[in-house]
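Chain and conformation:
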Amino acid sequence: MAFSKQHKGVLMSQYVTWIKSSQVVFVLEYSKMGMKEIDGMRVKVREVGGQIHVVKNTVMQLALKEAGIKTDELTGSLLFGFALNNPPAMAKVLVDSTRNSEIFKLKGGYLGGHSFAAASVRTLAELPPLPVMRATLLGVIQAPASRFVRTLAEPSRQVARVLQAYAEQPAAA
């Protein structure tokens, strides 16, 4: 399907907007793909707050360049996933979808203006969810403070125990 120059400009500006608003851009290669497979992938990706699109390589290469991302030449039939909210969750969806698939293959992605390999996508997918990471960080921050408070309170607890022991002793007549 041929697009007019004006339509390509509109598409490219949309891709640049998605690239700039995405925390991570994932790249997948596909082959022998029907609409059923891509729609299934789109549903899974949307559930975690992302988008996935088939984009012409030349248009995406120009959009990446305009967004300030250095890239090698894009070749093959590629899908581009835009992680707008939760990159680890989207990476997990993509890794799970490509694990036993002959249709999809992870190629890598772009994070902070730099490209990364498929192995990094798998590593990102192994990260715990954001609430778990926040709870872990809060525990790490809170632990020294809790120990400090216990250390400060211990002498007064010991005095209270001694007074309690004297109060519980039978009166020596």
